[in-house]
Amino acid sequence: MPYEFHTDHAFYLSFLAENTRKSIIPFLAPELPVPLAQARVLELGCGEGGNLQPFAEAGAHCTGIDLNKVKIEAGRELMSNWIQAGKMELFAEDIFNPDIEAAFTGKFHLIILKDVIEHIPHKDKALAQMHKYLTDDGLLFIGWPPWRMPFGGHQQIAQSKLLQKLPWIHLLPKPLYVAVLKAFGEPRAVIADLAETHDYRVSISLMNRLYKQTGFVMRKELHYLINPIYEHKFGLKTREQFGWLRALPWVRDFFTTSCYYLLAKKQA
Q: What pLDDT, on the 0 to 100 scale, is given for residue 8?
């Protein structure tokens, strides 16, 4: 079975929220164009809203959007206190829906993409859409696992306990990777998810090209040897990446378990 935190929604949301409190908000809040309590925050791929909860606690107005209707419905129940207080709204919608575009353009001081960019097929179009939705001085936060890191293929969602713990197995050519998943008896849905992640992978160098191509500039970045969320999942101490390793293109992807980017609109 997958790790318990993948199926226990309340527990999963609790450590998402705690990670946001301890690592994401301290990283980006000092750079926001307005005080956090006055910020309008959008999360793309929000799931049940765990990442947004600490922003709502701080007084921000939070909007979450996700294509998964089941997760949004669960989130509306789990986050009902914040929704009733007018601090959060959750939409089962597409960011390219014309009605959403009309409502969201130029609205947000902060947009969050946490562990989402590696699941998006047309990343350039999605980032360009996020560019539209920001205020002129708004910021885009992207946190993701570089593709070549030990578990960059999200193989921890596999049913097989062995596959869950095999680092770098996702770097096999896709046909061979899928064959291994089938040989271990993985369900079709899991194989489809892992194969999709293989298709939509994001390296550090690709992310660097994408944000520049879509009209963003770097405001702040952090690379982690040990992902902050591993502290909550596995009890491991957060560690930033070694400077010398971070300076080695391509190689750094193998040992960087997470990157935090804070991007601003490029000024004309």
A: 62
- Containing 28, the helix (H) or strand (E) segment is helix 25-28
The burial of 193, by beta-carbon neighbours within 10 Å (0-12 exposed, 13-18 middle, 19 or more buried), is given as middle
Q: Decide if domain 4-145+202-265 falls under CATH 3.40.50.150.
A: yes
Cα–Cα distance for residue pair 96/36, rounded to 1 Å: 27
Q: What is the pLDDT of residue 9?
A: 67
State the residue for tokens 């804070």: 262
Strand order in the sheet with 40-44: 88-92, 61-66, 40-44, 108-114, 134-144, 258-265, 216-226, 239-240
CA angle, 104 then 145 then 45, to 5°? 25
Helix 9-19 and helix 69-78, axial crossing angle in degrees, nearest 10: 80
In this structure, are residues 231 and 191 in contact, taking their beta carbons and an 8 Å threshold?
A: no
Two structure tokens written together for 26: 């301290």
Pick from 166, 137, 140: nearest CA to 27: 140
Dist. CA 111–CA 37, nearest whole Å: 15
Geometric angle at alpha carbon 116, from 122 and 33, rounded to 5°: 100
Strand-pair category, 216-226 with 134-144: unpaired
**C-alpha distances in Å from residue 221, one per residue of 27, 183, 226:** 9, 40, 15
DSSP H or E stretch at residue 251:
none
Give the per-residue pLDDT at 12: 78
Q: Where are the domains of the chain?
A: 4-145+202-265, 155-199
Q: Which residues contact 71 (CB under 8 A, 6 or more apart)?
A: 47, 48
Q: Mean pLDDT lowest for which of 73-77, 99-103, 158-162, 264-268?
A: 264-268
